Amino acid sequence: MTPVDTARARQTKKRTRIQEENEERILDAALEIFSSYGFRGATVDQIAQSAGMTKPNLLYYFRRKDDIYLAVLRRTLEDWLQPLEALGASDDPAEEIKAYIDRKLELSRENPKASRLYAMEIMQGAPVIGTVLNTRLKMLVDEKTSVITRWIAEGRLAPVDPYHLIFMIWATTQHYADFDVQVRAMLGDETADNGHFAIATRTLEDVFLKGLLPDR
Amino acid sequence: MTPVDTARARQTKKRTRIQEENEERILDAALEIFSSYGFRGATVDQIAQSAGMTKPNLLYYFRRKDDIYLAVLRRTLEDWLQPLEALGASDDPAEEIKAYIDRKLELSRENPKASRLYAMEIMQGAPVIGTVLNTRLKMLVDEKTSVITRWIAEGRLAPVDPYHLIFMIWATTQHYADFDVQVRAMLGDETADNGHFAIATRTLEDVFLKGLLPDR
DNA sequence: CAATTTCTTGACCATTCAGTCGACAGTTTT
DNA sequence: AAAACTGTCGACTGAATGGTCAAGAAATTG
């Protein structure tokens, strides 16, 4: 039996050591390739090479290109949703927003490829995760916006549209992953050690919380 | 002589009416296709079809796929740089930043494909316009950051890192083009008439200038 | 250690793709 | 309207790509 019937295999059959290892390596390689070429621009051969195996061998684990893409996208999506799920736990608006910015920036630094994969998928019209957007993500966002709305009603946050506020945080934090090349081009060699992330964190927190106008 | 030696043609020979029209249609089609599939994911056939002509005919105007990509990217880049060039004309920090946000958001609404094309190129490591980033864009940004730095020194703007401030504006405004699908999924049907852009404008201006903390 | 299962790969196939070519149609110039 | 140039396209080519298959190598199990 091939390991390809992953659904069944995961539930009923235990996966072998080699299987575990290779699927891991394939997904890492797939993230690398898909995140920089998009689905159609990536080739199975490239992914196989990057994973250090032959193409037929890769296709032994994932029968079709679509399967690889779906698997790596699913895995990425979880990482992506997690920080938002945590938003609002402490009920201190300023601290919560700072913490959310920190977490998202951290993710952009630690796993920029995942961010780019997600961005690619969305920019191509979200053909694969479109339904997730409209169901799970939308519900989650609706939940969080109502928390923000409450904070505003309580006078603990300036009256801004909560949806667009979330977009702003997404955009600014993911920018450091998605536009990494541009960021480094603008900042020069000082980005070699990723030290710019500390400055980014401080700048984002300052602007989001205090704005650009000088103290009144 | 074919119209393909565009460099020479543009300088020495006048371009025919048909040439003008067709190259225009091709570039529009190319923007459409490249912006949603990236360079490698797009096919010449797709572009030709979208331009309403056959592939050999398209290749009569642009000999190679690379040439089409380069041409449409060059054209896009100009649009992209223009708003930044205008930044700082009036020497009123708050007004200038508002105006920049407005202009960039306008661009995201009017020409989201151009924004996505640019984003794709950057996300793929800027293989084609990498040098432009490191020369022309960097010089322009350096120039604008020093204006911002002056504003800060004069106490007319809160002390934030000017580079990261520019990144923030880029990120938040382009988000509405690049992540259009996601934005619409979150906001629901109300986005059918693009009315959300007005709210986005107000939210961005408010957060950037005044921040999220309620009036102190 | 023999049988069974899992893993690996070279050779292969059908399709798609970028790009060419020659013949012909349309347009402009004289 | 003839000549010269410009534009269009069907048919093609070679290379790349997604995917298959059979046969053997490696690991696991009895």
TrEMBL record, chains A, B:
Keyword field contains Repressor: no
Extent of the signal sequence: none
Keyword DNA-binding: yes
Residue ranges of DNA binding: 43-62
Residue stretches making up the HTH tetR-type domain: 20-80
A UniProt-annotated Pfam family: TetR_C_3
PROSITE patterns: HTH_TETR_2
Keywords: DNA-binding
InterPro entries documented for this protein: Homeodomain-like_sf (IPR009057), HTH-type_TetR-like_transc_reg (IPR050109), HTH_TetR (IPR001647), Tet_transcr_reg_TetR-rel_C_sf (IPR036271), Tscrpt_reg_YcdC_C (IPR013573)
PANTHER family the UniProt entry points to: HTH-TYPE TRANSCRIPTIONAL REPRESSOR SCO4008, TRANSCRIPTIONAL REPRESSOR
Protein name: TetR/AcrR family transcriptional regulator
Native species: Kaistia dalseonensis
